[in-house]
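TL;DR need structure tokens for one chain.
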Amino acid sequence: PDPVHAYGAAKAEAEVRVADADPGAVIVRTSLLWRPDRGPQLVLVQDPSVTFFTDEVRCPLRADRLAAACLELVARRDVHGPLHVAGADAVDRLTFARALATAVGRDPDTLRGGPGAPDAARPRRLVLDTTLARAGLDSPLPGIAGDGPGREDRHR
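>> reply
TL;DR here they are.
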């Protein structure tokens, strides 16, 4: 971890404290969570004044997918330490917003994109290697292409 702001530093400190308290604990790291039925991302894609960052990359994962993976991990005693649990697609915020816009009936081509403030303290590229999670979990960790909003649940 290399936190660039106070929120990230607090998360990194929490990981250390959890590992110190229970070396057998699983520490789940994720990238960007979303819900297909509601949430801040769905509100933002309906606001024509919002500019979505083109220089900030994440691996979006539906919140229920993360929850299923966490429940599976609770039952496992052979997994411990940090584990990256995120979606399969590394996309910028504009690409993700366009996928969401389609689901809510907004023309994705009307969304605005652009770089964030150059001096903003935020991670630009939060792409997690989920190889270990994908190999060891039964729970699916699809990307937005296969798990986008408005699509039926093909992974159950």
